[in-house]
């Protein structure tokens, strides 16, 4: 093992890969086809080689099954070239191929030669003698397997690693939580209920936490806790009570030895003796008797026997028709609906869960498929060679079309042991014996016309029964992480509705999303509305849409059908015949609907006036909803809804969607929540008869496609046609809905005002046509402000010249960044954020606190800082900055970093770094980062490395960019003569360099005369807006100030850049005035998550980390009173955020349904805040358990109790279960914190609701 502590890196890899081992361990259990064992380390090897081999981790999803030959049939460069060419040709993801320029034109090119510049990872292997020796000893086939199918990580002491090959590890790190409804957290200490009301599990127990509020304690072989739903004991005598949950009535069940004498809902299987089954989950009461290996009773639904010869009868239940199935040894000769899993022998399967009839053959090599969701456990008996053994069957289901069965039995059972040992053993090596596994399967395309097949290697694929094409299903097994971590090794496949993406069959409802971004920047009228478009046909030409066209667009081909896509299938299925007249009726109603009259009545607006009067004329989301509701009622036939219940549920979803923020989304699962599928008669082939689960699943999918089209196609299209939807400055992510007449007038006034400043000149048609083909055209749009419109210019496009232009702009930013790092004086007094402000204040605050003296503050706002910069001055400034580096060569490295956070789980970030030093390989780069203290306990993945950037080329590009800046607005084109685009990534640095040059030139020392900025600096385009100037001293004679200038007292809280600075002590506070009148709902991007509770926790934790900055919490620069006040206001605002998140939980979830989880979340936030406070005050003693120091943990926790009680008590019915524990904990903490410490907290919490918080809307 390499020197250093790689424990945390190994922990990260173990949480993401089922199999993690060193290269030495991989070679030790590798036996070649010839029968000899691989020998990687020989006695004569050097210590350097041995240490290197032991420092390479091999990570895979499955073990190597068929070990090939040990022969060496190619050299390392030839093998590397073959792997690179093959990877690029097959379009696979591999770190080795990042940036490799393989061309697809020459298919006959030599596959054993490099056809482009190789990356640093490939060069690292190509030029290493150590890798050459490894490839020689393992053979070509095994080396190819390692480079192509495995993920290799090389450790870099003392504590980091980098990835050499394989699919990038950051693909496995999801920023959202997993999709399982169960949260399993391992508690190292024992079980107690502490003073805060938090449940803890000790003595190495596991705590089972379910989203509905269930907890279960597992201690050894005995389950001592209580939970809702089914619970299984592995043996022994036990009494258990079941508490109510998920619609189950309270009940008791007694387990005595091998006999189950109690009753419960749903299916129940005993390992021996007699068993009774009671009514539950909509099933009729029934009894079933299990006698030895033979099942002589009857039950509803599907039944599987794992061994022995047995006849089975299925009684009618859950809408299924009676059926009979026969199991004979390892073969099931009967037929049934739904998927059937056999651990051995052959199997036939008929239609079920939305799939068309088909047969499937399952062999012993098929692995159990896994899909997360709801769960139930069953105990059954497996008979092998005449011996009966108990088997635990855990069934998980998510949605109507995905299912899981995991069989867990004795290791002596032949059919089970081979599969379970292969699934369980690697994870036990990583997580310890007895640690539960969570297996997740994400099906890429579950559909009516597809089924799962196995390729013989354990890989599960989706095969379309129409086309025969296969698509892989992502199968990942991993140890279950703690509740606090949002770690997920599952790559969640997400997308839009099928009609828009053309993904048929569609994704599952939980993976299909409708985004509010689809509404933005419309307002072009009804001409481009979907129902007004014409279908292009090769034979007939464009024609108006008909009912049959809409059926195909919504359910089969998608929007591509309008462009003449081939019809698939050629003939509509019989189920959709009834939809054709309904869609014809919808089209007729649409063409007769008076949209304009409805709009003017519901959302009246006047399109005339000045900008000040037009800016407030935006329609509220509720008014837009009323317009959409009236249009839906007038256009959509009532037969589509099936019932008023469904129509009301859809309208409620529309109202919620229109009230969302800019970056939020709604899943199709939320849209379908509580929809009554069987109310829709048009979904039914037969109007009478029963509905089996497979038919119900298919109906649900079809109804989901229709509702997704109604929301994403009709509603969003209607909003885009009638309104211009945009964000606004100072309103966070809230959206404004402007009538297109109003917005057209606003844009006209904004453009005329923009042109009047002489910053752009209009181009004639001849000038536009004569522009070079390499010219990149930017697009201009305006964003509403409080008193005007802000112009935003961006380069938008995906063509080659646009991508090249954006790459060159990034290179400009990189080179300028290197120059600024080497010469910080180029920026003058520029600060880049809170960290820079804290650094500057830390240098002057101690002296001010020791010897206070009067301080004078000035805040100046420059009007149009970006748009007013003269091009001549910009060229002069940038030319001086780049004058010393024109002959230098710059290197740019893009890499990803993955690390583990204690409270937020696995995290990833992407970094782009430029430098002038000679290029180093990835190992040397990681070592340098660790020496500088920038990286520790992390995994790095190189994405791109470039060394061909010259300073003179950057200056030439910048000159060309300024001289040929063409902006398009509508049908007009302009040349920008002054200023720089606000939407460019380099704009901020260019502006700061220009004003830094002005500062160094005009203000080397403070002028005694003053007034320079107020008068303006025209050579730099600097014009001050006096309405935004603030000072704490008089500017004119007699204590007066010019008109519009704000004069503040000498000692005050001075506002600047969202901060409040104490002009006497230099204490820093946050300015919460920007939240006035704004709902915190729009400052958070919540959207739809698989685990809403964990997504909420991750969001609150990440915000807390950014807000708890040393600028506000450092006791070296702030007084103790200021720090306490900052903590209280920060926590109080976080309580508002907590309420906003709780109100946005999907599927009608409430805090009361799992109040223990949310109570523990509050305590976790308090603990995290305490850690962040101590991190900001390293070297200071803030207090310990003996209540010494100036800021104890109990003080932080009491502040949380006070703030959350203040906010949550306003909504008592919602947080009834949280208020009592908070009050109890508050009283205990007040008893501990007495005297000065308690008085300090009460001082910070007075007044309870500060003035700047009273205007905040939760």
From TrEMBL:
One of its GO terms (cellular component) is telomerase catalytic core complex. Residues 187-383 are annotated as: Disordered. It is found in: Nucleus; Chromosome, Telomere. Catalytic subunit of the telomerase holoenzyme complex composed minimally of TERT and the telomerase RNA template component (TERC). Coiled coil: none annotated. It comes from Oncorhynchus kisutch. SMART domains: Telomerase_RBD (SM00975). The keyword Nucleotidyltransferase applies. This is Telomerase reverse transcriptase. GO terms for molecular function: metal ion binding; telomerase activity; telomerase RNA binding; telomeric DNA binding. It holds the Pfam family TERT_C. Telomerase is a ribonucleoprotein enzyme essential for the replication of chromosome termini in most eukaryotes. It elongates telomeres. It is a reverse transcriptase that adds simple sequence repeats to chromosome ends by copying a template sequence within the RNA component of the enzyme. It is an enzyme of class 2 (transferase).
């Amino acid at each position: 093992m390499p020197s250093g502590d790689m424990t945390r890196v190994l922990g990260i890899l173990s949480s993401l890969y089922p199999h993690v081992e060193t290269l030495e361990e991989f070679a030790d259990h590798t036996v070649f086809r010839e029968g000899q064992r691989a020998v990687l380390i020989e006695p004569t090897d050097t210590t350097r080689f041995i240490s290197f081999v032991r420092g390479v981790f091999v990570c895979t999803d499955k073990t190597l099954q068929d070990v090939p030959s040990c022969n060496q049939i190619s050299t390392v460069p030839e093998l590397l070239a073959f792997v690179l060419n093959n990877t690029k040709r097959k379009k696979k993801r591999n770190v080795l191929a990042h940036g490799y320029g393989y061309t697809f034109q020459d298919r006959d090119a030599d596959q054993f030669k490099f056809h482009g510049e190789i990356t640093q990872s490939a060069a690292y292997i190509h030029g290493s003698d150590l890798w050459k020796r490894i490839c020689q000893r393992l053979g070509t086939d095994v080396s190819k397997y390692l480079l192509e199918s495995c993920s290799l990580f090389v450790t870099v002491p003392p504590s980091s690693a980098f990835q050499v090959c394989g699919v990038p590890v950051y693909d496995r790190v999801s920023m959202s939580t997993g999709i399982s409804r169960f949260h399993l957290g391992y508690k190292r200490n024992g079980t107690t209920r502490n003073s805060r009301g938090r449940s803890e599990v000790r003595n190495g127990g596991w705590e089972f936490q379910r989203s509905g509020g269930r907890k279960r304690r597992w201690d050894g072989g005995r389950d001592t806790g209580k939970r809702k739903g089914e619970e299984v004991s592995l043996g022994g005598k036990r009494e258990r009570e079941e508490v109510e949950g998920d619609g189950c009535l309270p009940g008791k069940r007694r387990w005595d030895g091998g006999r189950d004498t109690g009753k419960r809902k749903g299916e129940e299987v005993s390992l021996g003796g007699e068993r009774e089954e009671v009514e539950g989950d909509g099933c009729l009461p029934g009894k079933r008797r299990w006698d030895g290996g033979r099942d002589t009773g009857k039950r509803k639904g599907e039944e599987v026997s794992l061994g022995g010869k047995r006849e089975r009868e299925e009684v009618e239940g859950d809408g299924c028709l009676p059926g009979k199935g026969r199991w004979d040894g390892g073969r099931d000769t009967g037929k049934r609906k739904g998927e059937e899993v056999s651990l051995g022998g052959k199997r036939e399967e008929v239609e079920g869960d939305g799939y068309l009839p088909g047969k499937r053959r399952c062999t012993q090599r098929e692995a159990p498929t896994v899909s997360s969701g709801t769960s139930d456990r069953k105990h059954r008996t497996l008979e092998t060679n005449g011996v009966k053994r108990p088997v635990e069957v855990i069934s998980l289901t998510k949605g109507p079309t995905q299912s899981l069965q995991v069989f867990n039995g004795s290791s002596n059972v032949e059919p089970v042991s081979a599969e379970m040992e292969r699934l369980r053993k690697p994870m036990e090596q990583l997580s310890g014996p007895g640690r539960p596994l969570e297996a997740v399967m994400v099906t890429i395309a579950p559909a009516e016309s597809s089924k799962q097949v196995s390729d013989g290697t354990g890989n599960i694929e989706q095969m379309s029964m129409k086309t025969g094409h296969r698509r892989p299903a992502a199968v990942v097994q991993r140890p279950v992480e703690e509740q606090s971590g949002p770690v997920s090794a599952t790559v969640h496949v997400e997308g839009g509705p099928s009609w828009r993406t053309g993904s048929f069959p569609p994704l599952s409802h939980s993976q299909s999303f409708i985004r509010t971004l689809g509404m933005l920047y419309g307002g072009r009228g009804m001409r481009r509305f979907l129902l007004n478009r014409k279908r292009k046909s090769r034979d007939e030409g464009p024609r108006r849409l008909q009912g049959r066209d809409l059926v195909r667009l919504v359910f089969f081909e998608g929007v591509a059908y309008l462009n003449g896509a081939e019809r698939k299938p050629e003939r509509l299925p019989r189920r959709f015949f009834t939809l054709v007249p309904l869609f014809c009726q919808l089209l007729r109603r649409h063409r007769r609907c008076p949209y304009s009259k409805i709009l003017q009545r519901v959302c009246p607006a006047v399109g005339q006036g000045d900008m000040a009067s037009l800016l407030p004329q935006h329609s509220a989301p509720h008014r837009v909803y009323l317009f959409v509701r009236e249009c839906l009622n007038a256009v959509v036939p009532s037969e589509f809804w099936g019932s008023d219940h469904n129509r009301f549920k859809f309208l409620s979803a529309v109202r919620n969607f229109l009230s969302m923020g800019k970056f939020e989304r709604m899943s199709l699962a939320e849209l379908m929540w509580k929809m009554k599928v069987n109310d829709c008669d048009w979904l039914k082939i037969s109007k009478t008869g029963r509905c089996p689960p497979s038919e119900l699943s298919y109906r649900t999918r079809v109804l989901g496609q229709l509702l997704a089209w109604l929301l994403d196609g009709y509603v969003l299209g209607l909003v885009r046609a009638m309104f211009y939807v945009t964000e606004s400055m100072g309103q966070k992510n809230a959206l404004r809905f402007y009538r297109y007449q109003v917005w057209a007038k606003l844009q006209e006034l904004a453009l005329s005002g923009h042109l009047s400043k002489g910053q752009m000149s209009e181009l004639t048609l001849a000038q536009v046509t004569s522009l070079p083909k390499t010219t990149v055209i930017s697009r201009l749009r305006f964003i509403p402000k409080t008193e005007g419109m802000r112009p935003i210019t961006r380069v938008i496009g995906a063509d080659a010249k646009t991508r090249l232009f954006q790459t060159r702009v990034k290179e400009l930013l990189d080179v300028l960044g290197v120059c600024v790092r080497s010469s910080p004086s180029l920026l003058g007094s520029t600060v880049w954020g809170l960290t820079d402000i804290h650094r500057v204040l830390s240098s002057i605050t101690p002296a001010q606190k020791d010897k206070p003296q009067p301080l004078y503050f000035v805040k100046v706002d420059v009007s149009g800082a970006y748009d007013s910069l003269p091009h001549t001055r910009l060229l002069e400034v940038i030319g001086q900055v780049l004058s010393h580096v024109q002959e230098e060569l710059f290197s740019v490295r893009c890499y990803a970093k993955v690390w583990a956070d204690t409270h937020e789980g696995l995290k990833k970030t992407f970094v782009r770094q430029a430098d002038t030093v000679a290029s180093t390989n990835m190992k040397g780069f990681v070592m340098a980062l660790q020496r500088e203290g920038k990286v520790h306990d992390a995994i790095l993945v190189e994405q791109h490395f470039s060394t061909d950037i010259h300073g003179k080329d950057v200056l030439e590009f910048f000159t060309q960019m300024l001289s040929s800046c063409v902006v398009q607005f509508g049908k007009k084109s302009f040349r920008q003569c002054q200023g720089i685009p606000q939407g460019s990534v380099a704009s901020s640095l260019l502006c700061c360099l220009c004003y830094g040059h002005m500062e160094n030139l005009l203000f080397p020392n403070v002028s005694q005369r003053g007034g320079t900025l107020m008068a303006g600096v025209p050579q730099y385009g600097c014009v001050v807006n006096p309405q935004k100037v603030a000072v704490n001293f008089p500017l004119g004679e007699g204590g007066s100030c010019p008109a519009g200038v704000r004069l503040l007292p000498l000692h005050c809280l001075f506002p600047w850049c969202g901060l409040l600075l104490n002009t006497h002590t230099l204490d820093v506070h946050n300015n919460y005035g920007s939240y006035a009148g704004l709902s915190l709902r729009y400052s958070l991007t919540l959207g739809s998550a698989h685990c809403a509770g964990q997504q909420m926790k991750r969001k609150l934790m990440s915000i807390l980390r950014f807000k708890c900055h040393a600028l506000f919490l450092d006791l070296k620069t702030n007084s103790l009173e200021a720090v306490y006040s900052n903590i209280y206001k920060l926590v109080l605002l976080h309580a508002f955020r907590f309420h906003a998140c709780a109100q946005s939980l999907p599927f009608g979830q409430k805090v009361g349904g799992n109040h223990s989880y949310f109570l523990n979340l509050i305590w976790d936030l308090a603990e995290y805040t305490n850690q962040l406070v101590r991190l900001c005050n390293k070297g200071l003693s803030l207090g310990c358990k003996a209540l010494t120091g100036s800021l104890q943990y109990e003080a932080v926790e009491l502040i949380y109790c006070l703030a959350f009680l203040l906010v949550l008590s306003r909504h008592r019915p919602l947080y009834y279960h949280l208020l009592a524990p908070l009050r109890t904990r508050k009283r205990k903490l007040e008893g501990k914190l007495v005297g000065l410490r308690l008085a300090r907290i009460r001082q910070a919490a007075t007044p309870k609701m500060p003035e700047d918080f009273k205007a905040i809307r939760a």
